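Ligand: adenosine-2'-5'-diphosphate. Inputs:
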Amino acid sequence: MAQPYTIGIIGATGAVGRDLLELLVDRGFPAKEIRLFASARSKGKIISYKGVEYTVDETKEAIFDDLDLALFSAGSSLTKAMGWEAAKRGCVVIDNSSAFRQDERAPLIVPEINPEAAEQHSGLIANPNCSTIVALMGIYPLHREFGLKRMIASTYQAVSGAGQAGMEELVSQTKAWAAGEPLPRPDAFKHQIFDNIIPHVDVFQDSGYTKEEMKMALESRKIMSLPELRVSTTCVRVPVMRAHSVSLQAEFEKPVSVARAREVVAAFEGAELVDEPADNVYPMPMNYTRRIPCGVGRIRKDLVLDNGLALFVSGDQIWKGAALNAVQIAELLVARGWVN
Ligand code: A2P
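Predicted complex:
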């Protein structure tokens, strides 16, 4: 029996923060105490879950002295300001932001893919980008079998990727449309998201790709230890509440077979094969909301790439794309005795 830990959620009032609490409780994380933190604005706020009331406190450096683990989901600037300080104070940080994902000191972990990389942590472990995690739940088992050479990804990203504000914006625009009223002006997104899709997630770089699109390349390389991997991505925001989908075309070193691809996906922990096109069965975001596995289907031989496969993956952005993966990292550290 693992010793109980004092664990903090930093950004507890946000979309990911709230699910972090639910997942820690529901999955029976061995917590002596779960403490909630957010900005000074939220100090004193009460969050209840399963009959327990938690009082939100302000995030300050001193709080980390009393925490064994902290799950950060409050944006990059907060992690940049406090992440390593927390580690210095003896608290192991699992960070949802992109602040240190490319930092050599911070392992970038998907527990089903590279759990052993977490052993060498220096007090801060990075949780990968949500679209990247969802894509790799389909790609990684295929890579293990056939050897990934390069891939092309197009994402269909839910509004939850922009946090609570993103979800509220889709709801308020939809309600206004249904009531025949003028739609509220876009705020969380550059354009109206209701009845639209926006081929723009994160900031544009000189190359013409966005930062979000480059995360798919850079993070896939680090997670799968494939430093030369070539990836081209187009990230698109769609009016879906909280599950991301990714259309992928991948070229492999070895000849591929669809039957074998389906077998290895079905056997991969964290993936669920949903691939019966004759019966209209394939992954869809509405079926992967609040689901632990990511759905993988539409597996077929790609008509353009050599040794190529095309596939489609859906997974909950807030769960596997963020909170669930973070909690699974915490569970991994506890199970292996790597908390300190
Ligand atoms: P707060 O509610 O007090 O602003 P989301 O991604 O859903 O928008 O959530 C962001 C989370 O990050 C919220 O819990 C928010 O708390 C928290 N947060 C934002 N800025 C800070 C900060 N400077 N210190 C601590 N938490 C912060």
